[in-house]
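pasting for ref
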Amino acid sequence: MLTRLAAWCITACWLFSSAPVLAHKGSDAYLDVQQLASSAGSDVRLTLAVAIKDLDLVLPIDANADGQVTWAEVKTAMPQVLQLINQSATASACGLNWQTDGVERRSDGTYLRFLALPRCPAGQALALQYTLFAAQDATHKLLLAGRVGGQDLLTTASPRQPDSIVLSAGSVANPAQARNAASALRDYFALGVHHLLEGYDHLAFLLALVLPLQLSLWRRKPTSDVSVGDRKQGSGRKVWFALLRTITAFTVGHSITLILATLGLTQASPVWVEPLIALSIGVTALLNLRPVPWLRVEALALLFGMVHGFGFAGLLQEAAAPTGLLPWALAGFNLGVEAGQLIAVSGWILLSQPLVGRSWYPAVVVRGGSVLLIGLATWWFWQRVS
């Protein structure tokens, strides 16, 4: 027991000292659900992982408010943390008793892990009521995965949803939630949209790509082309074709690495992927100001899209989708990312319409916006390598 405790403390100290900070990943918690055979019947093992950075929004874990949570501070706050978890993840009929089960490192930092072994009355379904961070973060998601009763389990949940999450069936209950391909496709489509629209670095890269494209939704009188670098932009179809080529190249690039990384065919560490994502924004914005004549923007979008794909894959890998539902989760998530991308680009086009015809647009919006993106990318890069 002492050996195990010592090993846990050493691991915790290493995690706290080396965990990276990512700018774009939202608030997610992870629940692993597994059915275990026992002499008394079938028991369910629940393992919940919650980010310390998220818990610090609710509880004063960072006691001295220095921006660095230490293992000593976590140990001091642990009774309050356990109380919060037991109040926020409940199953009224089965009686959950969450206990600390260690720490683990994920792509966006250190997580506390909690374990519960619910015992449900005969014929009673295990239904989880999850309300963690409901008042603090409307975007928080619980990602559930596992295998119960011979069926794969894969779904997402919001702490604000009114319905309980049925995890295992009683003798008459039907655990219909997230046990089939259609629901996995639906849930992960929504997760992909959510992930793209809350990923500020991905949005910034898209903006850097489309910023020089002066897109008009209505016909204007022909004017001479306005050059921004080597990309001549005027009215007509060529601007829209340029947008189509650029966005398609970015889509192909991140889809390739998203699929390969999620299926385990290739690996990439966030230690270098995240700084490269920030670098991709800065380089693309810089090329808006100082173009390289032989470098096509589509090639740039394809290359950097592959880097961003590794960033997208991190969430899917950590969700640990069961093998049987992984293809559907991957398809839904990728389609959701594409939908989010279309929403973002369409929003920019609509936003820019009142300004795109003005004479000062290239200098103020395109060049000025590119300078601001370079500054933002530099800051993100510094954060991710320091």
